[in-house]
Write a structure and sequence with these properties.
Elements: H1 2-26, H2 33-40, E1 45-50, E2 53-61, E3 69-72, H3 83-89, E4 94-98, H4 116-129, E5 135-140, H5 142-153, E6 158-164, H6 178-183, H7 189-192, H8 198-207, H9 217-227, H10 232-242, E7 259-264, H11 273-281, E8 286-290, H12 297-300, H13 302-314
Parallel strand pairs: 3-4, 3-5, 5-6, 6-7, 7-8
Antiparallel strand pairs: 1-2, 2-4
Length: 315
């Protein structure tokens, strides 16, 4: 009996030691904007006071563009996902990219409202503040949902749409990043408020690439550190709770704007059959499928994808 007690005690100590090590390695409290700005907001980044927030954006290229390109990133991404596209297009167009509220360096909505209609009103107000009356919108994933929602809400303000693995229809994912799954479990919110294993973010980013070997340590650093921006983790949890998948998708068929649909054939988060639905519902739209790419084709292979966009814009 004494021997059994010693074994049990040793097991308890091993478990406690393992838990202590896990907490130590995963301890990741919020980081302030001031801590993150030096690395993630170099020139040409700027912060525009708008609607109670300091919106992190980059506004580059020709100032005489009548319908500037506005890039809208996906869930847990940031304006950095568009850097290669912006570099390729800023010589011929005005290019505006931004961190949407709840993501990147912009931080959370002050009122905690993460419904898609609120994002649409936010974007309308920001563009008015920037004195941009008409735009060409390009959006990936959640940013794609915002792009088509904005085009439905403000059709007179949108010249063209580029939807890249866009959200919109009821979910039929075959692969969901572990970080997204955990963010949708309310009971884990207190734990995840200060714990975030970097390995979990690495696995999540690799899972949305068609070729996971393309994911570098620097790319993982970017996703990991920007998720830690104060307020972003709670904003992500609230957005999943407030935005049911597929809400309002019937309105996609109302779109009457030239639309290019780009999709990664290896996207497990929003599979390619969603691309076919967009093509059917948006009259006159064009679909280009990249068989070897995943959920973020513009980031995974910017040269090949931006070439298609450039041709679409020149039509």
């Amino acid at each position: 009996m004494k021997r059994l007690g010693q074994v049990l005690l040793a097991l308890v100590l091993l478990v406690l030691l393992a838990l202590t090590g896990f907490v130590a390695l995963s301890w990741a409290p919020d980081r302030s904007l001031a801590e993150l700005k030096p690395r993630w907001a170099p020139q040409p980044s700027q912060f525009v006071a708008s609607q109670g927030m300091l919106v992190h954006l980059r506004d580059q290229g020709r100032r005489d563009d009548p319908a500037p390109l506005v890039f809208l990133h996906g869930t847990s991404a940031s304006l950095h996902t568009w850097e290669a596209w912006a570099a390729a297009l800023k010589g011929e167009r005005r290019v505006i990219s931004l961190d949407l509220p709840g993501f990147g360096l912009t931080g959370p909505f002050p009122d905690g409202d993460y419904r898609i209609e609120h994002y649409s009103r936010f974007l309308a107000a920001l563009l008015e503040q920037l004195q941009v009356p008409r735009v060409t919108l390009a959006g990936n994933s959640f940013g794609g949902q915002l792009a088509w929602q904005f085009a439905v809400d403000y059709p007179q303000r949108v010249e063209r749409l580029v939807l890249i693995d866009a959200a919109g229809y009821p979910r039929n994912a075959t692969s969901v990043p572990i970080g997204f799954r955990l963010a949708q479990i309310p009971a884990l919110a207190p734990l995840m408020a200060n714990l975030l294993p970097r390995a979990m973010i690495a696995a999540s980013v690799r899972s949305v690439y068609g070729e996971p070997d393309k994911v570098s340590a620097a790319l993982i650093d970017r996703y990991y550190e920007l998720i830690l921006r104060a307020g972003n983790r709670e904003a992500l949890r609230q957005r999943f709770a407030q935005v049911p998948a597929g809400a309002g998708h019937a309105r996609i068929a109302e779109l009457q704007v030239p639309t290019l649909i780009l999709w990664g054939g290896r996207d497990g988060l929003i599979p390619a059959d969603n691309a076919e639905r967009f093509k059917r519902d948006i009259a006159g739209s064009r679909l280009v499928l990249f068989d070897d790419l995943g959920h973020v084709p513009h980031e995974e292979d910017p040269a090949r994808t931006v070439a298609v966009v450039r041709a679409f814009l020149a039509e």
